[in-house]
Amino acid sequence: MIMPRGQQLLLPANPTFMLFTLVMALLLDMVQSMAFFGNAPWAPDWIALLLVFWGVHQPLKVGVGISFVMGLLTDVHQTSLLGQHALAFTVQGFLATMIHRRILWFDVPSQALQVLPVFLATHLLELAVRMGAGGLFPGWSMFISPLLQTLLWPLVSFLLLAPQRRAPDPDKNRPL
Amino acid sequence: MPLGTLDRNPPPFFKQGTSALTKLIVFSFLSMALMLADQRYNLVQPARWVLSIIIYPVQWMALRPQVVWYDLGDVFEGKQDVLDNLQAAKTQLLAQSVRTSQLEQLELENRHLRELLELRQRVATPALAAEVLYEAGDPYTRKMVLDKGALNGVVQSSPVMDEKGILGQITRVHPLVSEITLVTDREHSIPVLNTRTGARGVAFGESGGAPLLELRYMATNADIEIDDVLTTSGVDGVYPPGIPVAKVVKIERRADSVFARILCESLARVQGAKHVMVLTPVKLSVESPDLERPVPLQPKGGRR
Question: pTM of the full predicted structure?
Answer without folding.
Answer: 0.76
